[in-house]
Amino acid sequence: MQTYELILNEAYRLFARNGFEKTSLSMIAKEVGITKPALYYHFSSKEALFHALLQEVCKEIRFDTFFPIKEFSTENFKEHFITCGLKMIQEQRNDPHYSLLMKEFMIQSTRDEKILEAVKAVIDTYVQGFTALLMHGVKLGVMRGENLGVRAEMLTLVIDQIDNYMTLGLAFDYERIWQYSVEQVWNGEINT
């Protein structure tokens, strides 16, 4: 693994565990096994590192990472829709640092317009992505085309709130909530 990636990995863990304010570049450098000046070679400041980390996380959680439209067919559309969301929930559960880091991004977004814009951009990929996915379902003939925008926004709200509630440590049945939400979007929409 390259030094840049090692720095991002340790920053991910330390910012999640300690928060932005309590994590120093010295702590990160020590965990990576490099000097602080070597860390400055890659990142000019703690803020620059935090922003780079945010960009990497945003790339990993974009809509098409979890809902690759090309994989949805007439035969598997509804089941795959549910499965993709369940996979997303499971991946979040399996990463103990993810929820903590997302909480830190949300806290910092109230203080930093660039972070707020990055978070909004990810949410927008979900609205656009769900709209495109539902339109794909219409083209395949497995769904009717009414209220696609509202249904896409509802699914985005559900995904975002699942993420937020998991971040808070609330023990809801997220898998069933996701499945129920997809069923509601789907209910009465199958053209068979």
UniProtKB/TrEMBL annotation:
<dbReference type="InterPro" id="IPR023772">
    <property type="entry name" value="DNA-bd_HTH_TetR-type_CS"/>
</dbReference>
<feature type="DNA-binding region" description="H-T-H motif">
    <location>
        <begin position="24"/>
        <end position="43"/>
    </location>
</feature>
<dbReference type="InterPro" id="IPR001647">
    <property type="entry name" value="HTH_TetR"/>
</dbReference>
<feature type="domain" description="HTH tetR-type">
    <location>
        <begin position="1"/>
        <end position="61"/>
    </location>
</feature>
<dbReference type="Pfam" id="PF00440">
    <property type="entry name" value="TetR_N"/>
</dbReference>
<dbReference type="InterPro" id="IPR009057">
    <property type="entry name" value="Homeodomain-like_sf"/>
</dbReference>
<keyword id="KW-0238">DNA-binding</keyword>
<protein>
    <submittedName>
        <fullName>TetR family transcriptional regulator</fullName>
    </submittedName>
</protein>
<dbReference type="InterPro" id="IPR036271">
    <property type="entry name" value="Tet_transcr_reg_TetR-rel_C_sf"/>
</dbReference>
<dbReference type="InterPro" id="IPR050624">
    <property type="entry name" value="HTH-type_Tx_Regulator"/>
</dbReference>
